[in-house]
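Please decode residue identities from the backbone states below.
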């Protein structure tokens, strides 16, 4: 046998050996939960870190769950704030498929995948304020198109990558290391983000200050009456019709944000409704879908984006304390997320301050709701928000 042939056989043998070893490790560890095998070790469950491939990891959670009863979808607000282990769900199988940095196009894609493959009994679908009037498509920005959620593409290629891919092997080895060191993953096996690997966490107000400074030069005045994005609206209507066809109950809800995020002192005499066109567009959309002759439950719409006292919690400007209800100005706590679940599902609300939190929207109360939000905003600027808004605007002025 010639030297060239021996080299070729040796090379092919090495490749085959590596492939077998990678497949064995990846199916044993099953780091993203997308390569289950009879020999997959459940002992790795609490150490499977999905931060580097969140969409693939969330799809893996879905694969590893036998027909979930309820699913949460949306952005990082869902991922961080909606606990699938909330006691009120009892023995039901519940998953949190919220994805950091994932907005409407992505959330709709995940929901279509759910409806076409699992059809859970209920889907709680979060809508970020401002998303409906923004054309941004986050699918190309993360691992959506490399995940099982993606429509089309080469499915075999994706599955082979999960099975023998070097990137999967790297995550497997990281999972082995995490388990050996007792370092738990940042996400629970049901999808709630409960911890961060980042060392040396800053005081909450320092984090908020740095985020605000980063946005000082990019600030987009959401109070301007931007038209809603027609493509997003059309796809959302199509998805909601599909849900009714599949008999799945869908509850749409507009996320809350901390009142200081968009507040400006100059609004005190004529408070606007921030992202004003979005609520009427969603109300009209839900009415159209509910008027259709379809068998499934009617779509419900809730609104938490207002100046309720929970959303107006004072910033901890003079102490190292943390806010009870907010991680930052855009992300509410699990305690608030549980209260939102309870309000929308009609359960007892575990948080006394939230018994009147959120409003179910329909054509009969839309105008009064908009007027209520305007009134709340003015009251916030004249009262508890004055200090926080002054601090934010002084910060912006110093930065500029």
């Amino acid at each position: 046998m010639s030297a060239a042939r021996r080299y070729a056989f040796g090379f092919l043998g090495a490749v085959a050996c590596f492939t077998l070893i990678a497949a064995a490790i990846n199916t044993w560890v099953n780091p993203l939960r997308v390569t289950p095998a009879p020999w997959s070790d459940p002992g790795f469950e609490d150490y499977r870190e999905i931060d580097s491939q969140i969409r693939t990891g969330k799809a893996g959670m879905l694969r590893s769950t036998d027909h979930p009863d309820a699913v949460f979808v949306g952005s990082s607000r869902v991922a961080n704030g909606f606990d699938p282990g909330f006691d009120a769900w009892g023995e039901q199988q519940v998953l949190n498929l919220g994805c950091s940095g994932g907005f409407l196009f992505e959330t709709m894609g995940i929901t279509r995948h759910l409806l076409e493959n699992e059809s859970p009994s209920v889907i709680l679908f979060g809508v970020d304020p401002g998303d409906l009037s923004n054309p941004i498509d986050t699918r190309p920005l993360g691992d959506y198109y490399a995940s099982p959620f993606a429509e089309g593409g080469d499915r075999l290629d994706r599955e082979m990558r999960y099975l023998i891919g070097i990137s999967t092997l790297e995550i497997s080895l990281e999972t082995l290391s995490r388990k050996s060191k007792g370092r738990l993953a940042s996400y629970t096996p049901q999808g709630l983000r409960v911890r961060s690997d980042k060392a040396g966490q800053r005081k909450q107000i320092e984090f908020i200050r740095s985020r605000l400074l980063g946005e000082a030069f990019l600030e987009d005045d959401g109070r301007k009456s931007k038209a809603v994005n027609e493509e997003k609206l059309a796809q959302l209507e199509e998805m909601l019709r599909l849900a009714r066809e599949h008999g799945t109950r869908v509850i749409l809800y507009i996320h809350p944000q901390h009142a200081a995020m968009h507040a400006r002192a100059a609004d005190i005499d004529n408070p606007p409704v921030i992202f004003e066109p979005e609520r009427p567009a969603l109300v009209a959309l839900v009415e159209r879908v509910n008027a259709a002759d379809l068998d499934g439950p009617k779509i419900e719409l809730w609104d938490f984006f207002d100046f309720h006292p929970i959303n107006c919690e004072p910033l901890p400007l003079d102490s190292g304390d943390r806010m009870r209800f907010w991680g930052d100005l855009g992300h509410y706590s699990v305690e608030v997320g549980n209260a939102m679940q309870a309000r929308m599902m009609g359960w007892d609300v575990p948080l006394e301050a939230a018994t009147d939190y959120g409003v179910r929207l329909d054509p009969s109360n839309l105008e009064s709701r908009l007027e209520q939000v305007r009134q709340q905003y003015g009251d916030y600027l004249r009262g508890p928000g004055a200090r926080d808004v002054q601090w934010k605007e002084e910060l912006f002025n110093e930065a500029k």
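Observation: Residues 79 and 98 are 4 Å apart (CA to CA).
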